[in-house]
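Re: export button greyed out
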Amino acid sequence: MLLTEKIKDALSVKLIDPTLEIYDLTGGGDHMGINVSSSSFKGLSLIKQHQMVLDLLKELLKDELHAVKISTTVKEE
Amino acid sequence: MTSPFNVISENHATEVRLEQEFSTVQNKIEHLLSSNPIILFMKGNSDTPKCGFSANTVSVLNTFGHNFATFDILNDVEIRQGLKEYSNWPTYPQLYVKGELIGGADIITELLHRGELKDILSKAL
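Workaround output, generated via the alternate export path:
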């Protein structure tokens, strides 16, 4: 399974109906930029939003995913 | 003759160091957080930052004119490791206002662009 699919699955575990843009930062397939929008971020500070994403990607970050550049936005229902 | 275009905002950062011994790294961290309303844990200090992200964050903070403390994590490996677990954040710099982690360089830049950083910093006054 493609890394982007794994990232989608990992994030969808907790984030409600996430809208995702995943792009490769360096071309090597292991430094990924992730823009994620979800209503689950509502009321959370920016740092808490990023921590939530980092926690969901914890397993992937141990091995396949070397670095991520995260940006999060609150999705209005 | 100093160039008129060489506008450097005044440096409001003061480097703080740990004066006394602490029994645990937790106590060290909590002492630093409670005694400095705005503190930036960074690599180096405002005069000699040792990382681009830390340097950028110092200059962003200086544009607001509030005094803030900096702590050089390269001088204290215990804090350098301990802070990552303490706040569940893997990288530096780390900015804290009133003991609360605001973020790293990316988040601080994002907050600046969203115009939210001013209010966050004024919470410390």
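Chain A touches chain B at residues 45-47, 50-51, 54-55, 69-71 (CB under 8 Å). The button fix ships in the next patch.
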